[in-house]
TrEMBL record:
SUPFAM superfamilies, per database record: Alanine racemase C-terminal domain-like, PLP-binding barrel
Cofactor(s) required, per the database record: pyridoxal 5'-phosphate
Record-listed N6-(pyridoxal phosphate)lysine modification sites: 46
GO BP terms in the entry: D-alanine biosynthetic process; peptidoglycan biosynthetic process
Protein name according to UniProt: Alanine racemase
Family: Belongs to the alanine racemase family.
PROSITE patterns recorded: ALANINE_RACEMASE
NCBIfam families for the chain: alr
UniProt pathway annotation: Amino-acid biosynthesis; D-alanine biosynthesis; D-alanine from L-alanine: step 1/1
Length: 390
């Protein structure tokens, strides 16, 4: 009798991204503790909650004191609204087709929408008319990022258009800082000056602006003078501050797998594509069934350690050779008692660990890959099942 097994059925794959909502809640609470009473916190849960699961992250952040949620795409905002979350939501990234098909329902649902150009304002206005409801608009001002947003010299023109449109309600002005993760960079103060000047011009056209927001995780942690009415932390919520800080933040994702095979090899054994690693002693190698198709960055090959939990102890082992699509090899050392089935922690919190070495972090993988922890977390593939820790 043959029992069909669906491709990539998570019950039959050992790889897990274990999500700890309590870490997100605690991180949010720690961040809100830095704010004045009048400053609200928007939890940025875009990119499926930075890979942690959008609804899981949203609910955990709300429990920690967030009163706003931010997502890039309108469809994500609708998903949050349909989940029954009674909270302010902001969405900011759409093109004409999305605006025509999705924005009417977004506006009907009371979701706040960002506008970054005159053309985007026209799209939002048309959607608001179709929904027969005023759109709550956050005007995005480009102070140096060169992405979404109106240039400061365009603010008066678009402000006048907003003032004259009965279906547009100005809810906020905002910007995104380019270099807040480098507190010594003078460009942040220059951007703030441009933003403040643009807001003054906007107020002359539309009257008082209810909210101003420009602080991301880095500015929240290093620039209390930029907290204004609302802050928008992202990566810090998930336990990875982009700047040095004493604020206690705990990683919320742990990526795990299990050893598929352990074998002893002699000195001079070559490992992986391109034979970039050759053993310099007799040792034991472990095969782990996780690779770049699961989110490990191939460029990080042969540079990062993982934590292996054996019957006797936890130990660090270097990943050796090229990272393959579905597997990696780790050097367990000649005296390891590891065996097939033992748990491997790629990064995160090795819960229940005895005294011993700490687990590798997403920061470690980021340094090995020459990137940032944001990319490491959001690269964990959909075929890696998410397991939410109770």
């Amino acid at each position: 009798m043959t029992i069909p097994i669906p491709a990539e059925d998570p019950r039959h794959v050992p790889n897990r991204a274990v999500i700890d909502p309590s870490a997100i809640t605690q991180n949010t609470r720690a961040l809100t503790g830095l704010l004045e009473e009048h400053t609200a916190l928007m939890a940025v849960v875009k990119a499926d909650g930075y890979g942690h699961g959008m609804l899981t992250a949203a609910r955990a952040a709300l429990e920690g004191g967030a009163t706003w949620l931010g997502v890039a795409h309108p469809a994500s905002a609708l998903a949050l609204s349909r989940a029954g979350l009674d909270v302010n939501i902001l969405t900011w990234l759409y093109e004409p087709h999305t605006a025509e098909t999705v924005l009417p329902e977004v506006i009907s649902s009371g979701i706040n929408v960002s506008v970054g150009s005159s053309a985007m304002l026209e799209l939002v206005s048309a959607a608001a008319r179709q929904a027969d409801r005023r759109a709550r608009v956050h005007l995005k001002i480009d102070t140096g990022m060169g992405r979404n947003g109106v240039l400061p010299e365009q603010v008066r023109e678009i402000g006048a258009a907003m003032r004259e449109d009965d279906f547009i309600e100005i809810a906020a002005a905002w910007t995104h800082l380019t270099d807040a993760d480098d507190p010594s960079d003078p460009s942040t103060d220059q951007e703030v000056a441009r933003f403040d000047s643009a807001c003054e011009a906007l107020e002359e056209e539309v009257g008082p602006i209810p909210l101003q927001h420009l602080a991301n995780s880095a500015a929240l942690l290093t620039r209390p003078d930029l907290h204004r009415d609302l802050v928008r932390p992202g990566i810090a919520l998930y336990g990875y501050p982009p700047v040095p800080t004493d604020v206690p933040l705990r990683p919320a994702m742990t990526l795990t797998s299990r050893l598929a095979l352990v074998k002893e090899v002699p000195e001079g054994t070559t490992i992986g594509y391109g034979r970039i690693r050759t053993t310099d002693r007799r040792t034991r190698l472990g095969l782990v069934p996780i690779g770049y198709a699961d989110g490990l960055h191939r460029v990080a090959s042969d540079r990062c350690e993982v934590l292996v939990r054996t019957a006797s102890a936890d130990s660090r082992a270097l990943q050796v050779g090229r990272i393959s699509m579905d597997q990696i090899v780790i050097d367990l050392g000649p005296d390891s008692d590891a065996c097939a089935g033992d748990e491997v922690f790629l990064f995160g919190d090795a819960e229940g660990a005895p005294t011993g070495p700490a687990a590798t972090t997403a920061d470690d993988w980021a340094r090995a890959a020459g990137t940032i922890p944001y990319e490491i977390l959001t690269s964990v593939a959909g075929r890696v099942s998410r397991e939410v820790r109770a």
